[in-house]
Write a structure and sequence with these properties.
By secondary structure, the protein is of the alpha/beta class. It folds into four domains: 1-43; 47-99, Nucleic acid-binding proteins (OB fold (Dihydrolipoamide Acetyltransferase, E2P)); 107-288, 3-Layer(aba) Sandwich (Rossmann fold); 294-376, Orthogonal Bundle (Helicase, Ruva Protein, domain 3). Helix content is 49%, strand content 15%. The chain has helices at 2-42, 107-110, 127-142, 144-150, 168-178, 188-193, 199-212, 224-227, 236-254, 294-305, 315-321, 327-343, 351-376; strands spanning 47-55, 58-62, 68-71, 85-88, 95-99, 112-114, 157-161, 182-187, 216-221, 261-267, 285-288. It has a six-stranded mixed sheet, with helices on both faces. A five-stranded antiparallel sheet has the order 3-2-1-4-5, with no helix packed on it. α3 packs across α4 (144-150), α3 (127-142) packs parallel to α5 (168-178) and α7 runs parallel beside α9. The longest helix is centred in the first third of the chain and has 41 residues, at 2-42. The chain binds adenosine-5'-triphosphate (ATP) and magnesium ion (MG). Magnesium ion binds at residues 168-169, 221, 266.
């Protein structure tokens, strides 16, 4: 009995020693963990830098603020090449790690990336423009060796200018389709308004994206929003636009004309463009996309009515009535004419439907169109 008791006590005593040791071990581990955590807090963060060049056993890196330094790199990092992203410690800027996958800034969410399928057959009345685009964009993308052999450098990009709705976007998409290129669409005004303070960075990333997805065409709509002559760069907003513009010029200057990335800029306001953008070696081919003439209107009308069931109509009369219309307006006329027929439960579209549609479109665009002409001629 007493033995049992002793045993019991002994047993209990051992248990408590075991418990204390257990607790001790646990506390020790906690201390080690906390020390490790503390160590982490004491360590300075690493800076993400870009490798610019390799010089003997040193590496030239660029910091996010733009400063460049020649630094060492820790061993065992594997091969480092220009363009890589690396992490450097802040004191000596020694490269500690290579970063394989830096999360892209929002460039790929911000731009529209597309593989257009539309053909030249969808473009009406712009043969001269089409020919020129084929020569300066299509040919170099398809046959760069031809240019190398002959020894000339094709333009890096073109600038399409002209009134709204005349087929500029259409031309750009058609050449992207014919060259099976990735079509990267950026809108100038959005670039500087939506991502305040990030415009320049975005431009850089858009060009990088284009190189990754090459062959590609960077389509910059409303390029005047970035590349307008600035009378006053005093405000911070203006300075931001200026920075974005400078980055755009730097990117354009930086790439090889024989590479498989081309730029197509677009504007309704060629008059306010900074000549820096159209300087030789940049978007130096200017292509005017005017309102269609009679022949052009006929072609565009044909394109947009080719799937419609038409009654016997006098096409020439309709074309005459659409004097001064843009391609977009000619398309709108076809759609409106279709609606007039639908409203009367007809499946054939009559000449009168077209006349009504023209009157309607005329009414809608008259004010806008005149505003445009008054402002920009
Ligand atoms: N030359 C054309 N041939 C056939 N369709 C055309 C033509 N021009 C315009 N269109 C029609 O009008 C629509 C708008 O044209 P598009 O977007 O190419 O105009 P844009 O010149 O880029 O105008 P904006 O300056 O306003 O951007 C096209 O999708 C097309 O349906
Ligand atoms: Mg357009």
């Amino acid at each position: 009995m007493s033995n049992d008791k002793t045993n019991g006590i002994t047993f209990g005593y051992q248990t408590s020693i075991g418990g204390v040791e257990e607790e001790n071990k646990f506390l020790r581990e906690s201390v080690t963990n906390l020390e490790r955590e503390l160590e982490k807090f004491k360590r300075t963060p690493l800076i993400l830098c870009e490798v610019r060049d390799l010089l003997d056993d040193k590496v030239l890196i660029r910091l996010p603020n733009g400063n460049e330094f020649l630094v060492d790199s820790a061993g065992g990092l594997g091969k480092i090449s220009p363009g890589d992203s690396v992490l450097a410690e802040q004191k000596n800027l020694t490269i500690i790690r290579k970063v394989d996958q830096v999360r892209k800034f929002d460039a790929d969410k911000f731009v529209i990336i597309d593989k257009p399928t539309l053909t030249w057959q969808n473009v009406g009345g712009l043969q001269a423009q089409e020919r020129e685009i084929k020569e300066v964009i299509e040919l170099p993308l398809m046959k760069p060796e031809l240019f190398k052999k002959i020894g000339i450098e094709p333009p890096k990009g073109i600038l399409l200018y002209g009134p709204p709705g005349t087929g500029k976007t259409l031309l750009a998409k058609a050449v992207a389709a014919s060259t099976k290129s990735t079509f990267i669409e950026v809108v100038g005004s959005e670039l500087v308004q939506k991502f305040i303070g990030e415009g320049a960075k975005l431009v850089k990333e858009i060009f990088q994206l284009a190189r990754e997805k090459a062959p590609s065409i960077i389509f910059i709509d409303e390029v005047d929003a970035i590349a307008a002559v600035r009378i006053d760069v005093g405000t911070s907003g203006e300075r931001e636009v200026q920075r974005t513009f400078m980055q755009l010029l730097a990117e354009v200057d930086g790439f090889n004309p024989l590479g498989n990335v081309k730029i197509i800029g677009c504007t309704n306001r060629k008059d306010i463009l900074d000549p820096a953008i159209t300087r030789p070696g940049r978007l130096d081919r200017l292509i005017h996309v005017p309102l269609p003439n009679e022949e052009g209107r006929k072609e565009i009308h044909k394109i947009h009515t080719r799937n419609m069931t038409l009654a016997k109509i006098n096409t020439d009369k309709i074309i005459k009535e659409m004097e001064g219309f843009s391609g977009a307006e000619i398309k709108a006329v076809a759609t409106e004419a279709g609606y007039f027929a639908i409203r009367e439960n007809r499946t054939k579209i009559t000449e009168q439907d077209f006349m009504n549609a023209i009157a309607k479109v005329n009414e809608e665009v008259k004010t806008e169109g005149q505003d445009y002409l008054r402002m920009f001629g």
